[in-house]
Write a structure and sequence with these properties.
The structure holds 2 protein chains of 2 kinds. Chain A is of the alpha/beta class. Chain A has a single domain, classed as Amidase signature (AS) domain (Amidase signature (AS) enzymes). Chain A has 15 helices and 11 strands. In chain A, strands 1-3-2-4-6-5-10-11-9-7-8 form an 11-stranded mixed β-sheet, with helices on both faces. In chain A, helix 4 links the parallel strand 2 and strand 3. The radius of gyration of chain A is 20 Å and the shape is globular. By secondary structure, chain B is an all-alpha fold. Chain B has a domain of 37 residues. The longest helix of chain B has 17 residues. Chain B is elongated and about 45 Å long. The chains are: A alpha/beta, B mainly alpha. The interface between A and B is large, with 40 and 33 residues.
Chain lengths: 464, 60
């Protein structure tokens, strides 16, 4: 088998289960690629290569003896370093937690390991999933494999960069204001923020209790659905967890979009935050392609992105201040500058501001619910610009908030970002699909049809 | 928000150390906060409830 690093999680799992591929051979190939490329990309905070190789050998022995643990047996996965892996530090990419060794796996990690997945290591993030990209932290920021001079998106930066570079086929990230969907957009892969409460947050360091959600990042839609099958499910010890039916997210992948009603939120990228022309053209191309394939495309209006962003910020920064206040009072110098500035903002918001944001939030939830009674899925921009250069903090600061991801953290609806094409400079452009609560299967159905039509799964960055 | 107000609120929040060591960061944080609050539209209906709502526990 050639090009093992471009195998999807599903292809690798099937080949391993059929004994056509050894998990040890796969792990060796990925570790060699990581050794070659990670010095350029800074994907890993901690590469747990010995443990990963040990687990690959154990998987090989088990499979050879006829014991298959589950659908990901022997397949490597990367974990964003705000998510606990037993015995490894959860640093949150910060000096504050540099020695914070986790006693147990987060529920999402435990579920993946239960199906035989192998943890490769802990991945770069923005400091505490908010302060980045930064050069004043104990580890450098991750870089974009499509062009290492550019930002890979964040805060699940290592997750996005590593998958796109072929260092591993799947990873976990977290999404509070778009942090799974941003790296998926910037790195040209697939990232899902599930419905709030679908995936347990237990064992994940919080940024904002009512906005945080764990999500899968993969190179293909089918892999994303498979990962969600495994990590979704009720956890009575997570107060936000919902006892909703889950699983079988990939069953409708090949149903196509004929007859589906898709609401196109053009005002997000046309008037709220006018997008780069190539981004706008990419979105029109996605809509036109899905229409040709039988979807009924309709224009939809929601509150403006500015309103959504303000509500997201007030809630996020108030809740984050409640978490970080003690450290910011005693150890402000142990944070990088970006995190320090963003996390202290909550100190300047009142209880009344927070409650007003929560009241406005209910109106926004109702607005999205209303539109999803008229259509099955929403289509809109994810990022308004191709990824910025990492050495241009002014451009990064300008483009970072130019996005349409925060609305669906505010409302809790599931949202998936994926590649929509490439810019003239060879950087990924993106599109976002949004669904009804707990209707991730429909999102995957639409996303798969776009992936199939555009052939996006065959496109890889020119690296290595 | 003027400098005196920023200092007052920062000290009330216990950020004395940050105010001494990183005064520009404290000012930038205050500016971010006031910008977000100013851009937010409050509901006009006095009966509008917050989300998520209070719910009785079911024995966590």
């Amino acid at each position: 088998m050639s090009d093992l690093h471009w195998l999807t999680a599903m292809e690798a799992a099937q080949a391993i289960a059929a004994r056509k591929l050894s998990p040890v051979e796969l792990m060796k190939a990925l570790l060699e690629r990581i050794a070659r490329l990670d010095p350029k990309l800074n994907v890993f905070i901690h590469l747990d290569s010995d443990a990963a190789m040990g687990a690959a050998r154990a998987a090989e022995a088990e499979i050879t003896s006829g014991s298959l643990r589950g659908p990901l047996h022997g397949v490597p996965v990367g974990i964003k370093d705000i998510i606990d892996v037993a015995g490894l530090a959860t640093t949150c990419h910060s000096k504050i937690l540099i020695d914070n060794v986790a006693a147990a796996d987060a529920v999402c990690v435990s579920r993946l390991r239960g199906t035989g997945a192998i943890v490769l290591g802990k991945l770069s993030t923005h400091e505490f999933a908010i302060g980045g990209p930064s050069f004043d932290l104990p580890w450098p920021p991750a870089r974009n494999p499509w062009n290492p001079d550019h930002h890979p998106g964040g805060s699940s930066s290592g997750s996005g960069s590593g998958i796109a570079a072929g260092l591993f086929p799947m990873a976990l990230g977290s999404d509070t204001g778009g942090s799974v969907r941003n790296p998926a957009s910037a790195c040209g892969i697939v990232g899902l923020k599930p419905t709030y409460g679908l995936v347990s947050r237990r064992g994940v360091f919080p940024l904002s209790f009512t906005l945080d959600q764990v999500g899968p990042l993969t190179r293909t839609v089918a892999d994303n659905a498979l990962m969600l099958d495994i990590i979704a499910g009720h956890d009575p010890l997570d107060p936000g967890s919902v006892a909703a039916p889950s699983g079988h997210y990939g069953t409708g992948l090949d149903r196509g979009v004929r007859g589906l009603r898709i609401g196109f939120i053009r005002h997000f990228h046309e008037s709220d935050l006018p997008a780069d022309p190539e981004v706008a053209a990419g979105l029109e191309n996605v809509a036109a392609t899905l229409q040709k394939l039988g979807a009924d495309i309709r224009d939809i209006r929601l509150p403006t992105l500015g309103e959504f962003a303000a509500v997201n910020r007030v809630i996020l920064q108030s809740e984050a201040w409640a978490i970080h206040g003690p450290w910011l009072r005693e150890r402000p110098g142990d944070y990088g500058q970006l995190a320090r500035r963003r996390l202290m903002a909550g100190a300047f918001m009142s209880a009344g501001d927070y409650v007003q944001a929560a009241r406005r939030r209910l109106e926004m939830v109702a607005a999205v619910e209303d539109t999803l009674r008229q259509v099955d899925v929403l289509l809109c921009a994810s990022a308004m610009d191709p990824p910025s250069r990492l050495d241009d903090p002014v451009e990064t600061e300008r483009t970072y908030p130019r996005q349409a991801r925060t609305p669906f953290n505010v409302t809790g609806h599931p949202a998936l970002a994926m590649v929509a094409g490439l810019s003239s400079t060879g950087l990924p452009l993106s599109v976002q699909f949004v669904g009804r609560n707990f209707a991730e299967a429909t999102l995957f159905q639409v996303a798969r049809e776009w992936e199939r039509a555009a052939g996006t799964e065959e496109k890889h960055p020119p690296i290595g | 928000m003027d400098k005196a107000m920023i200092e007052l609120l920062a000290r009330r929040a216990g950020l004395d150390k940050a105010l001494t060591e990183f005064p520009e960061d404290v000012a930038a944080a205050a500016e971010q906060a006031s910008g977000s609050v100013a851009r937010m539209k409050a509901p006009t209906d006095p009966r509008a409830e917050p989300w998520p709502p209070m719910k009785a526990g079911t024995g966590l």
